[in-house]
Amino acid sequence: MYEIPSPADLRNYRLKVGMTQTELAAKAGVSQSLIARIESGDIDPRASTLKKILEALKAGKAKELCAADVMKYPVISIRPSDTIRTANKLMEKYGISQLPVLENNVQVGSISEDRVVREISSGKDISKIPVRRIEEIMNDGFPTVSKGTDVKTISKLVEANPAVLVVERGKVIGIITKADIIRMM
């Protein structure tokens, strides 16, 4: 059996293919105001009108997702002068396994659960590890991309890295992890 799309579904389909209401109306041969009224749920379209709209949507090209579409913000981060204990508390609180290390909203490194575990297993005095500063053990930073970078490129980057940072004018504005790429599907 076929499911008739709701007004919200129609709007989501239109946005997914990257069309404005005016563009959809022109392709479907109806007025923009009719599209707006259908999407708001003010009116129920006739079956023939709905068919024209769905055909126009189907013919539309799907918009390629980019970093701005999937990034999370604000970015949970830590400063180089903070302690490993602080990093562990943040990771536990937010259920994440890595953090960018930022100074004045610019990336200077990263810290991960893996790095902390390696520090513990290195044979050093475990009681001193929680009070060490992040800058003493931090890893290199995560790769960075712009807001317009396509998801395919980002997917390749997260294959080899735990996260990718989204930057604008040198400042970190978002983060994308493997989980975000998977969740997008």
Query: Mean of the pLDDT scores?
Result: 92
Side by side, the strands of the main sheet go 3-4-5
**How many beta-strand elements?**
5
What is the total domain count?
2
At the first level of CATH, what is the class of the largest domain?
A: Alpha Beta
CATH level-two architecture of the largest domain: Roll
The biggest sheet, with number of strands, parallel, antiparallel or mixed sense and barrel status, is:
3 strands, mixed
CATH level 3 topology of the largest domain: CBS-domain
**Percentage of residues in strands:** 15-25%
Radius of gyration using CA atoms only: 23 Å
Secondary-structure element sequence?
HHHHHHEEHHEHEEH
Indicate the overall shape: elongated
Overall structural class, as computed from helix and strand content, comes to alpha+beta
How is this structure best summarized?
Helix content is 46%, strand content 15%. It has 185 residues and is α+β, with helices and mostly antiparallel strands. The model has no long low-confidence stretch (mean pLDDT 92).
What's the SSE blueprint?
Layout (H helix, E strand, L loop, with lengths): L6 H10 L4 H8 L3 H9 L6 H13 L7 H4 L13 H11 L3 E6 L2 E7 H9 L12 H4 L6 E2 L5 H10 L2 E6 L2 E7 H7 L1
Parallel strand pairs: 3-4
Antiparallel strand pairs: 1-2, 4-5
Helix pairs in contact: 2-3, 2-4
